[in-house]
Every structure is written in C-alpha cells, then in structure tokens.
C-alpha cells in the first residue's frame, strides 16, 4: 500500500486514474474500519486533505462552497453557515464523537454511500449540488443523484467530489434534521429525517422539501409529504398527513437497530417534528434569516 | 508496501521515523517512537483509547495513516506532565479514583485536555458529551467526569 498526498485536484485525479485499486480518502473514518473488517486493501491511499479547495468552507456571493474533505468540526464551528443551514449543521454534527468530528467529512459521508448517512438527507432537502472533477473537467450533480445503492455511487473511478454548493436560503426559509439512534451519541441512524420549509408572510408554508435516510437503499425524497405541508399552517391534520406520507414512502429493512414497522412509524414522527423545528426557526428569526 | 520517512513534532520534541505507508499513526507512535500511552482498543475509531491531539484537533490515532503526520504537531498523554509534576488532570484522576484497569485512561486524559483547552469551565453535560468518544468498562464514568470537573477548577484557579 502506498500513501500519496497530492496538493492539487489534477494531481489527485492523475494518481487515481493511474491505478484501478487506488482510493481517495479524507478522514478515513469509514475506510479504516472497512479495511480492518476484511475489505480488500487498496493499492494506494490518496489523501485529499492537502488540497485547499477540498478543505475550505466559504461563501461566494449567495453560494456556500463546502469542501468535500473539510472536517465536520470546521463546518459546525462556522456560525454563518449554521445560521443559513442549521439542519445541515446538526446532521454533520451528529456523526460520531469529537474525535470523529475532527476527521469525518461531507464528501466521505456521501461517497461511502451508507443508506444511513446523516448528512445526505440534510443536503438533499437544500438542493445541494456536488461538484465532481473528472476527465472532462467538472460536472455538477444534485447530491440526490450521487448515491445509487448501498456502497454504490454514480462516480467513475477517476472522479472526485470536490465540494458542495448550497444556495443561501430564500427569505423565511429554514431547515432541520432529526435522527433516532438507540443511545444519545455514537450510533448509526435507525431513521433520519430532513425538512426544509419556506413560510409566507402569513405563516403558511409556501415551499417544503422532505427527505428520509436509513429507510431505503438510498435517500428518499417524499413529494407526498411536501404536498401535504405546502399551503398549510402546520396544523395537526397537515402534519399528520405529512407523517403518514413519510411512513408510506419508506422501504426499510429489519435489522438489529429496528424493524420495518418501527422504522416506518419513526419516519413519520421525525418528519413531523423536523417540520415543526424548521418552522420554529423561521419564526424565531422573524423571517430575517435567508439571503433575500 | 511502500515506506515513508516522517518528520514531525511529538510533545514538543522534533522526531522522525520510518513507517510503512498503510500503518496507523497509533502503531508508529507505539512501535517506532516507544510512546505506548495511546492504546488500541477497537482499531475502528469507536473507543477513543488511542486519542491524541494532532494540529490542535482531538483525533483517534488508529484512523490516521502514519504518513499523514508529516509536519504535524502531536500531543500524546506522555506530553501532559512536566518533568516533576503531573498535569492537574492526571493528579485529579489519581485522587478521584477515575480509573481501574487504566487501558482507557490515556485517551480520556487527552480528550479531557482537548476539552479544557477549548472550554476551561465546562458543565457536567459538556464534559459528558466531550468524552462520548471514549469508552470505559470499569468506572461507570462518574468518577472520570467528576475528576475532569475538579481539574478544570484547579487549572482555572492555580494554588
């Protein structure tokens, strides 16, 4: 096994293209356990943490650029980002201990392609775009289209996720992410739910996105739950309809963390609660959050 | 397996070592530098027994490939005490009986140091969250938490 620490994206891509058994990594918080679990060792470990663009978190105009290899702790420490995307911030901050937070990254969380990845539903509800460097230059792909199944992505072998682009939220818009785990810290989601809402001047929902994690092979957008929320004032009947739609959209498995029945029920509960949290965030900032 | 010559700073001393590229920093610290404070518990980033501070950030050294340490500044539990005096955290762990078998202790000490470096006056809840990445199967955690809180007091108000 060979270690390489390129300082440019082109250099990293050339290394990756030169070796079919090479992998890129950021925090290795999934790579190392998988190697120790018996997965074949890669021939080359390409460390992405020395490439500035993959490590930076910056606001350019109305677009946030979050480096794919930036540690979660760099994201959660950014108060301006947290004000725009409290849901993404809490999803990134939920992953692992402080030790893990100092290594784990959004790019790694996405490309590891676990159905239970916490940050992915939170990115999806915010229409986040993954910037992917490949042979023909860079392409921009909705985060929702990157993961194709457990452990599978739509990336070619020589492609690298460079960063995520998130447009600053519109006025009176906020998000929330909730997950259920069997203990308070350090576990993997039984269900995760991300919700983003926009409220109009009268407090009615004018736009909603809902995405669920850990209830299907990939993250699930729930248009029926979104439709149940839009136009409502988040009254009990609308929230119940959204919860029912979320439960219905699940295609979960039974495993040691939860049964199919349990996951379906919890998906509804978390969707309802996350919607309430997002709305509360809009109200407590008196609509002053957002770009315009 | 390729090998890399790594130069870095450990506990204030300039050091260098030769490592196989896929080796963990934990094994390099233990086998190449003789710093056997950090322990391997799980080897997968769950237990925190291998915790170190690298470039100001608390991390599991079992998840770090040794060549990543090139140019880095690293603190291990061996760097806590001065020549003739234990660090307040170490002294409080001793006096508070915050350990039994001791395997997890170096990791707890380093995680606690990382916390107090950033937050000299943590609440009990903050201590418990900050130590959530460190597992102890002996103490039930209470004595560890109380010892960290006591050390925080001593560091804030030196005798």
Radius of gyration over C-alpha positions of chain A, nearest whole angstrom: 19 Å
CATH homologous superfamily descriptor of the largest domain in chain B: Beta-grasp domain
Spatial shape of chain A: globular
Helix-and-strand structural type of chain B: alpha+beta
Strand content of chain A: 25-35%
Principal-axes geometry of chain B comes out as: globular
CATH architecture of the largest domain in chain A: 2-Layer Sandwich
In round numbers, the mean pLDDT of chain A is 95
Number of strands of chain B: 5
The CATH class of the largest domain in chain A, by name, is Alpha Beta
Briefly say what this structure is.
The complex is a heterodimer of chains A (292) and B (159). Helices cover 35% and strands 25% of the residues of chain A. Chain A contains twelve helices and 14 strands.
Task: Describe this structure as you would to a colleague.
The complex is a heterodimer of chains A (292) and B (159). Chain A has helices at residues 9-17, 31-36, 52-55, 72-76, 79-84, 86-93, 98-101, 106-111, 119-125, 223-229, 236-249, 260-284, and strands at 2-4, 22-25, 44-47, 57-60, 63-67, 129-134, 137-142, 147-149, 152-153, 160-167, 173-180, 191-199, 205-213, 220-221. Chain A is an alpha+beta fold. Chain A folds into two domains: 2-167, Uridine Diphospho-n-acetylenolpyruvylglucosamine Reductase, domain 3; 173-284, 2-Layer Sandwich (Enolase-like, domain 1), CATH 3.30.390. A five-stranded antiparallel beta sheet of chain A has the order 4-5-10-6-7. In chain A, strands 11-12-13-14 form a four-stranded antiparallel beta sheet, sandwiched between helices. In chain A, strands 1-3-2 form a three-stranded parallel beta sheet, covered by helices on one side. In chain A, a hairpin with a 5-residue loop joins strand 12 (191-199) and strand 13. In chain A, 50% of the residues are buried. Chain B has 159 residues and is of the alpha+beta class. Chain B has two domains: 3-79, Ubiquitin-like (UB roll); 88-156, [2Fe-2S]-binding domain (DNA polymerase, domain 1, Orthogonal Bundle). Chain B is 33% helix and 17% strand. Chain B contains five helices and five strands; from the N terminus they run E-E-H-E-E-E-H-H-H-H. In chain B, strand 1 (3-10) and strand 2 (13-20) form a beta hairpin. In chain B, helix 2 packs across helix 5. The mean pLDDT of chain B is 97. Classes of the chains: A alpha+beta (292), B alpha+beta (159). At the A-B interface, helix 2 and helix 7 of A face strand 4 and helix 3 of B.
